[in-house]
Amino acid sequence: MEQPAAAAVAAEQEGMAQGEDLLHQFERILHHDPLIDEVGFLHPTQFQSLDRSQTGYSTSESHEYTQEYLWCRDHKLAISSEVLPKLYRTARHAYSNSATAKDAALLEPDLMSHSKALLILCPDMLTAWNSRKMVLSVSYDFTKLKDELQLCTLILSYSPKNESTWSHRRWVIKKVSEHHQDMSGLVERESLLVKEIAEKSKMNYRAWRHRCWLISYMTREQVLDELKKSARWNELHVADNCCFHYRRSLLLALLDSHCIEGENSLDFKSEVHLLWKEELRWNEMLIRRYQGRESLWIHRRFLSQWWVEFLLSGEEMECCAAGTSLIDLFLSQEIYLLSDCLNVPADEFGEACIQAELAALYILWISKATP
Amino acid sequence: MGCLRFLLLLMQKKDSFESLVMEHIRLNGAYWGLTTLDLLHKLDAVDADEVIQWIMSCYHPESGGFGGNVGHDPHVLYTLSAVQVLCLFDRLDVLDVDKVADYVSGLQNEDGSFSGDIWGEVDTRFSYIVICTLALLHHLHKINVQKAVDYIVSCKNLDGGFGAMPGGESHAGQIFCCVGALAITGSLHHIDRDLLGWWLCERQCKEGGLNGRPEKLADVCYSWWVLSSLIMIDRVHWIDKDKLAKFILNCQDKENGGISDRPDNAVDIYHTYFGVAGLSLMEYPGVKPMDPAYALPLDVVNRIFLRKRD
Ligand SMILES: [Zn+2]
Predict the structure, then answer these.
(1) Are B56 and B94 in contact (CB under 8 A)?
(2) Which among A217, A223, A197 has a CA at the least distance from the CA of A208?
(3) pLDDT at site A266
(4) A–B: how many Cβ contacts below 8 A?
């Protein structure tokens, strides 16, 4: 009976040694190539088909064993799914040890390297993100914070909905904003990142939430610019409600007090009203072009509801004798749109039918919103 | 229902990578699984002492919060789950109630919002979590309720719904949190019930299931978020309950038990809980009724609040 037990212990020890080898190599790869922009968790058969004639990290030090499971070239990293549990467990263990170590300052490089390895394998590990925040909080270092954004970008490239990563990203940006007056460059790059992620990950609430959150850091010019730039994108993604919500947030930001304060406030206001009219016109064009899209009609509900409230508030009165007649005019245009949508001949996909339903619901909505 | 077998199976399987990477939210998983068991009258199938001992091993006595598992940092997300599970077993007595209440109430910000932990991420979900936790512990007075309500109201959109932050897109999950928080604090008058009811009813898709936002597919978990919100604002009669119940039952794995997000997908504990909870809100036979605001079985909530009144 003693022999099998001894064999089991030996096998376990070998397993642990392999795990440590793997983690060591994994962290070495991450350290040597800070520009890795893609991670793939490959099935062993897929992994075998990779060209392994000269892997990027192979040096005299590299181990036969780990080469079977880790691969990196041209900033692309591949991990064989076969070793994921082992690698994860080892990384988890190494991270815990360095996080609970007494002499924290001394082990800081270890903590950063182990938590990074762990988070790439499991980005939900909130506690590991927190350890990083702790280290980064000690003294402000812009370069380190930029590296942190890079790590988040990498993880979001394969885990675009990961909440802990988005949250950590916002924490980093907040930190940067405490030390930098001009956030425009950073905000622009963040907005671009969300756009790229949104192309691959449809209707990603967390990504778009991030973009809406950025608005509070934007200048008025930037908000206007974002509106201009997002129009074309939205035309290509008319089924994506998130991208229209983003426009709604941008439009509302322009009306926000901090944007229209000051001597130019009158000009700013009339500029927004022109934009609003233009948005209504653009949205109608899309509604007529793309039949039966819920997100387009929801956008119209928002635009019209605000527009009616604005007309009722009477600010436009001075240019027209009767404010109410402006509303009547607007509503009759909307009913005209409805009747057009009701009169579209039926098609084989049933889109005309959905369009008619959405149009009718829209009119009902507006009639409720208009006293 | 076959849910029981699935839940017990799930507690055994521990070594797959999927279950490994779920370890950090095991406390949420415990809440989903145990509440489901209780709704099915099967809570006695688990060893209460063992569960409570494990729950308390996730507790951080220095902060007063709970981590998602042993050795994980505290966060309100797990603190509410811990409190809810202790409510299920009627064992709030093991808690240092003041300490836990101090932890969650200490996360209120100047504008009335709440951070999820010391690192400052703000979300209307955290408003709900703190308010629900404090109400269950009879400590709502520890926060500025008026400011908390004002902040939630500031997250209301023109469509009647709520987002994660001011200006955030309306989302059924966030709406549940905001409506739940307003319900618990007696502030539902801030809601335009017809407008929000309209938005929520439009979540019902052709196949009967509910989605969480426009243009999305139906998903079992929204049965809970949407239905509970509709009940709280008294507009639940606006949707077709029979069709919804059929959709949920269609998402069952008839061989192994459990419920998935959509028909024919793989089951998981999260959707099993939300499916059963959704059925509970529709008074499905054999399932205990659920309280729409506290997300606990009604008898558990009654026990907490009626006892206090004695
Ligand atoms: Zn779901």
Answers:
(1) yes
(2) A197
(3) 73
(4) 85
CA B268 to ligand 1 center in whole angstroms: 10
pLDDT tens for B154-177 read 999 999 999 999 999 999 999 999
**Cα B98 from Cα B137, distance rounded (Å):** 9
Q: How far is CA B247 from the centre of its chain?
A: 21
Higher pLDDT, B206 or B307: B206
Q: Hey, is the C-beta of B169 within 8 angstroms of any chain A C-beta? A: yes
State how far the Cα of B120 lies from the Cα of B76, in Å rounded to an integer.
Answer: 12
Q: How far is the CA of B275 from the centre of ligand 1 (A)?
A: 10
Q: Which residues contact B38 (CB under 8 A, 6 or more apart)?
A: B88, B288, B297, B300
Between CA B303 and CA B306 the distance in angstroms is: 6
Is the Cβ pair B167, A84 closer than 8 Å? no
User: CA A203 → CA B10, B212, B215, distances in Å?
Assistant: 31, 11, 9
Give the span between the Cα atoms of A307 and A274, in whole angstroms. 11
- Report which secondary-structure segment, H or E, holds B291: strand B290-291
Q: Is B15 on the interface with A (CB under 8 A)?
A: yes
Bridging pattern class, strands A76-80 and B65-66: unpaired
Maximum alpha-carbon separation in chain A: 102
CA of B220 to the centre of ligand 1 (A): 6
Reduced to 3 states (helix: H, G, I; strand: E, B; else coil), residue A286 is helix
The verdict on a CB contact (< 8 Å) between B167 and A89 is no
CA–CA separation, B226 and A296 (whole Å): 23
Q: Is B286 on the interface with A (CB under 8 A)?
A: no
Q: Name the residue type at position A355.
A: Q
User: Cα–Cα–Cα angle for A217, A219, A225, nearest 5°?
Assistant: 110
Q: Is the pLDDT of residue A61 over 60?
A: no
Set out the domains of chain B in order of their start, with CATH numbers: 3-306 (1.50.10.20)
The residue count for chain A: 371
